[in-house]
Amino acid sequence: MVEDPTPLDIAQVVAEHHQAVYRYAYRLTGSVQDAEDLTQQVFLAAHQKLGHLRSPGSVRSWLFVIVRNSFLTDCQKRRPVAVDPLGLDMNTVPAEIPDRGEIDPERLQLALDELLPDFRVVLVMFYFEGCSYREIADRLEVPIGTVMSRLARAKAFLRSKLLPASSGTAGAAHHATDHGG
Amino acid sequence: MGHAPNDDVRIREAMEACRPGTDDLRDPDLAFLADRMAASPQLRGTFERLQHWDEKVRDVFGEIPVPEGLADRILAGLASTPGAPASPDPDEAAKPSLAEPAAWRASRRRILALFGGLSAAAAALLGFALWPESPPALTPADVSQWARSQFPDEVSQPGHLVAENPPSSDFPAGPDFDLARFPRMKWRWIKFHGYDGVAYDLRSTPGRRATLYVVRCVVPDLPAIPPPPEFTGDLATGVWQSGALLYVLAVEGPRGTYESLMPPRTLT
């Protein structure tokens, strides 16, 4: 018989995961203050529900679920969201990949901020959490085809914002900003 | 790329779905992409550049400075908030969670089944039922209020898929909420004034939440059929009693959303 795992201690959970939770929250909210508020909110919820969680190994993904759900709930309260705003123009794969140092983290965040929440969440799950498209579909409870479409559109939009025009990105930006479908 | 437009979109979406440094191309639904790339060096080149780009973006994604003293502020915030137990509630600890190891879950299920069987036998021998009982001095309004206080927190709750891991038959959702209508329905344990219950997450589309609470207890003066909902803000609640089971349906959204789940009905 497997013995009960040691109960989790909230102080330890905070110590081990607050940085990852904050970074996740920052990529979603795009603001230091909002990210800190969301992080606080997440650990408050985690504190209240910690007794429901049995496996210490799954704490981080559980916290990320709370981050995502809290973020999406807040977004729904703030404003209505249009459906599928990005045109799909995949002609944004650069002929030459710039060095990592040439990807400006601030521009990355500004581009993320322009995306609608549903697209932003998918992108953050892909790049930050390292989720596969199947895992994203499963966790968000949306069809796989929807995830693949959102992922492709959001990534193309990101490239259009981050890569210089000379890298073969022309044509994507206007699709992403006209919200025309 | 020299393909039909729809095919082009399919190829591009598949390329974008592959994570750098993984074997995502072995995914059965993406296997066609490997075949296409084997036949097209140009496509292969585009894919490799995309993977390279994704790798760099992924690295930058995590480069976010964390404010100094954040952990201390979180802990201070928690300390100033009343409520949470420091360790798992023993009652809750006896209930299954999606996150726990399968072996542990199975082993505990056997123990719970054994205890459940012994309890039922003991109750039958003694000739009386241990429950349901009536919570003291509770009114229908108290039940609605309780549901409204539960509902906002649920967005962060894990749950079990009913289709894969159904709850005890002691807490049936009832014929109005069967799996045919809600194939992705989840459930989890709850407590209502000390009484065990189950909450069913009925959300069928993202962004619209609905929860059915089923608790084994009796609250006096409740209707025997689902009544018209009460509204508080954007939340509609309906409370009724069916035999020994208390039911509360809480639905986010306008009356039409509630009635799409629970149409108005009358006693026949």
Account of the protein in words:
The complex is a heterodimer of chains A (181) and B (268). Chain A is an all-alpha fold and 181 residues long. Chain A has two domains: 10-78, Rna Polymerase Sigma Factor, Chain: A (Orthogonal Bundle); 90-176, Arc Repressor Mutant, subunit A (Orthogonal Bundle). Helix content of chain A is 61%, strand content 0%. Chain A has eight helices and no strands. In chain A, helix 1 (10-29) runs antiparallel to helix 2 (32-49) and helix 1 crosses helix 3 (59-78). Chain B contains eight helices and seven strands; from the N terminus they run H-H-H-H-H-H-H-E-E-E-E-E-E-E-H. Chain B has helices spanning 5-17, 31-39, 41-61, 70-79, 90-93, 102-126, 140-150, 255-261, and strands at 160-161, 186-192, 195-201, 210-216, 230-232, 235-242, 245-252. In chain B, strands 1-2-3-4-7-6-5 form a seven-stranded antiparallel β-sheet. In chain B, a hairpin with an 8-residue loop joins strand 3 (195-201) and strand 4 (210-216). In chain B, helix 2 crosses helix 3 (41-61). Chain B is elongated. The termini of chain B are far apart. The model of chain B is unreliable at 83-134 (pLDDT under 50). The interface between A and B is large, with 78 and 62 residues.
Outline the secondary-structure elements.
The complex is a heterodimer of chains A (181) and B (268).
Chain A: H1 10-29, H2 32-49, H3 59-78, H4 105-114, H5 117-127, H6 133-140, H7 144-162, H8 173-177
Helix pairs in contact in A: 1-2, 1-3, 2-3, 4-7, 5-7, 6-7
Chain B: H1 5-17, H2 31-39, H3 41-61, H4 70-79, H5 90-93, H6 102-126, H7 140-150, E1 160-161, E2 186-192, E3 195-201, E4 210-216, E5 230-232, E6 235-242, E7 245-252, H8 255-261
Antiparallel strand pairs in B: 1-2, 2-3, 3-4, 4-7, 5-6, 6-7
Helix pairs in contact in B: 2-3
